[in-house]
Amino acid sequence: MLRMNEGRSSWSASKWREWFSEGETIPYFQPILSVEKDSIFGYEALGRFLDKSGQVHSLGPFFLSDIPHSLSLSEREEFIALKLEIDRSIRKKAVEKISKTQSIDPKAKLFLNISPSFMQDYLVSRSDEDPFTLQIVKNSGMDPKRIVIEMVEEHFAGEIEQLKPLINLYKRSGFLVAIDDLGSKSSNLDRIGALHPDIIKVDLGLIRSSVASRNFQEILFTLSRLAESLGCSLLFEGIETETELYNALTYGARFLQGFYFAEPSPDLMDINGLSIRFSQLHELFFNYKKYQLLRRIKKERELEDRLESSGIEVLSNGEEKVTITLRNSYLLEKSVFRMYVTNNEGRQLSPNYSAISESGMLEDDSFVGRNWSWRPYFLEQFYKNAKDTSGNWFASNPYYDLESNLLLVTYSKRLQEGNVIFVDVRMWDFP
User: Fold this and answer.
1) For residues 239 and 264, what is the distance between their CA atoms, to the nearest angstrom?
2) For residues 123 and 160, is the Cβ–Cβ distance under 8 A?
3) What's the rounded Cα separation, in Å, for the pair 84 and 113?
4) Which of 178, 215, 355, 429 has the most CB atoms around its CB within 10 Å?
5) Nearest Cα to 37, choosing from 95, 97, 101, 108?
6) pLDDT at 154
7) Contact 300, 426 (CB under 8 A)
8) What is the pLDDT of residues 395-412, one digit of tens each?
9) Same domain (yes/no): 254, 350
10) Domain named EAL: which ranges (predicted)?
11) Are β-strands 420-426 and 407-414 bridged in parallel, bridged antiparallel, or unpaired?
12) In the 8-state DSSP scheme, what is residue 390?
């Protein structure tokens, strides 16, 4: 059982030390898989305690729990020293283990969790010695390029900028840097901006939420774009199901980790020990996404046909205001949210037309004269129309409408006069 007894959360450092003396702290290793190479990219070292009865306990609660406020200053300092002692013991044993194991890929990385608070303590001490992790790696003869410093997610009272000298030292030594658990207790966006990590680890909670929530899907999509623009790799951790795996792959995972592939183990598993074969996963994922894309293409074509057959007419009475009429409104009443016309610079010329039915449409003049050139979909249609002058309909990326809070796709088409007609379609019309 890997869950630490909650009653220990109020223990003093001496009580913890007494407990640790009756067993052994050891590292467990969970493989991290490379999507592009179909292989093991590395292993995350996780703290475990093997008690005298042979039961294994996770040390996560010990490291991440707050030190009880009831303790005196000296007791709190003793507690911090104990945490550092146990943490260093795990890191040292993990480095020794991987450096001596011959059965794994000699380039496989070792992910070592380090607290930002421990990093700050090292910098404050103004020690002339190398950081502990750099020392043990040098002593082991291990290539520093195989080490990934993983900054754990925890409340950190200091300024992240203060850690840059140490992070830069790790990078100059050849280490990679990862930001842990994006999306859990804090956003960690400040750490990404300040430290420019090589790897961003995305928390399991975001993946699970994305299965049912469009909001979280948009967040994951944004994270994938952020990682791409910064030159960072995304590592999705905590994957337990095929659905979570597909979500991770959909949003740009380069590396994967979780019980779906392998549980943490005292031994360093090689790729042959995994029951999942990546070539099969890739084929299944591609077929799954291909089905979705082909279904969407079919839906888009059906909608474009309805738009063409609906008999949309844009009329001008000689003034700047224009109107829209429909000959076959029934073709659009179940999918179109609203329609309107702008000029080429984005200023709205027509009213908004909504609530389309065979009996007519609602007309709202209050939007005439507004300018939409600042909206991403307007610039997107401008680019597409300038690139392709065929007069076809162009669809935007899905987005949430500010006023209705509906998820929409905007279709646009350049008119002969140079104006543009926009048709907002409810996203439920698509898969």
Assistant:
1) 13
2) no
3) 12
4) 178
5) 108
6) 65
7) no
8) 888 887 777 778 888 999
9) no
10) 9-278
11) antiparallel
12) S
Domain count, the chain: 2
Q: What is the pLDDT of residue 181?
A: 63
> For residue 61, what are the domain limits?
6-276
Q: Which helix (H) or strand (E) holds 85?
A: helix 73-100
Beta bridge partners of 426: 408
Angle at which helices 116-125 and 73-100 pack, to 10 degrees? 100
Tokens 């959360």, residue located: 9
Looking at residue 269, the DSSP 8-state letter turns out to be: -
> Quick one: pLDDT at residue 43?
97
Task: Please give the pLDDT value at position 16.
Answer: 86
Pair (251, 378) in one structural domain = no
Same domain flag for 264 and 344: no
| Same domain assignment for residues 272 and 315 | no
Structure token digits, residue 7: 């009653």
Q: For residue 105, what pLDDT is reported?
A: 92
> Do 141 and 35 share a structural domain?
yes
Domain CATH code at residue 345: 3.30.450.20
What pTM did the predictor assign? 0.80
Q: Residues of the chain whose pLDDT is less than 70?
A: 1-10, 153-158, 181-190, 206-207, 209-215, 275-279, 318-320, 428-431
Q: Are residues 331 and 215 in the same domain?
A: no
DSSP-assigned letter for residue 173: T
pLDDT, residue 319, reads: 62
> 56-60 long-range CB contacts below 8 Å, 24 or more apart?
56/1, 56/2, 56/28, 57/1, 57/2, 57/3, 57/4, 58/2, 58/3, 58/4, 59/4, 59/25, 59/86, 59/90, 60/4
Rounded to the nearest 5 degrees, what angle is found at the Cα of 293, between the Cα atoms of 414 and 205?
Answer: 110
Q: Residues in the chain, how many? A: 431
**How far apart are alpha carbons 261 and 200 in whole angstroms?**
20
Q: What DSSP letter does each residue of 102-149 carry, written as one string?
A: -SS-TT-EEEEEE-HHHHHHHHHHT-SSPPHHHHHHHHHT--GGGEEE
| Domain containing residue 122: CATH number | 3.20.20.450
Long-range contacts from 206-209, C-beta under 8 angstroms, 24+ separation: 206/182, 207/236, 207/238, 207/239, 207/244, 207/247, 207/248, 208/244
- 187 and 251 share one domain: yes
Share of the chain residues as helix, strand and coil, in percent rounded to the nearest 5: 40, 25, 35
